[in-house]
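In response to reviewer comment 3 from the previous cycle, which asked for concrete evidence that the modeling workflow produces usable outputs, we include below a single protein chain processed end to end. The sequence was submitted unchanged, and the resulting structure tokens are shown without manual editing.
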Amino acid sequence: MRYFLTGTDTDVGKTIACAWVMLHSPARYWKPVQAGLDETDETVIRALTGAGDERFVPTTYSLPDPLSPHEAAKRAGVQIDMEKFKPPDDRDPLIVEGAGGLMVPLNETSLVIDLIQKLGFPAILVCRTALGTINHSLLSLEALRARDIPVAGVILTGQGAPHNRAAIEDYGKTRVIGHIPHLDMVTGEALKAIPPERDLLSL
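The workflow returned the following structure tokens.
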């Protein structure tokens, strides 16, 4: 179980979805590029899961400004080198969280989708349930498959919308592995109470 968790856009709930995966599996967490250090995604996940250091792989690039990675790196005087992205050598379960969507630039020539392709892990796509999600989801699925990146499944976030779910599954030829509804307060207990719809260890 080694997956790259990406999304149709920024703020679709990738970090919450990663915490949800960790609460329902022994997966470790890796955020290769963190842009914005006031409250990092790893900090959020630690608070939600209570996981210790052993379940976190060090971030490769930590950039101060909450911007697209290529711009945050430029402002920090850093050049993001794709060759420095190296997952742990062990075969422990791992969830890798991307930055924004698939076409977010990492440097002058490489996008997040290039990093997914380089690592060789199947992708999990996080999609909103709201209006517009069908288009965004299908375009993202098409982009992944155009690169021969396997799609392990989709995690939906937001209020239930059965017609949108059905369209993503049918037209996107994929499966929903979990649905995280809107939560008035996001806590580890609330996420733990949401069961996966598929066995996360054998997608």
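The chain has one domain: 2-202. We consider this sufficient to address the reviewer's concern, and the full set will be provided in the supplementary archive.
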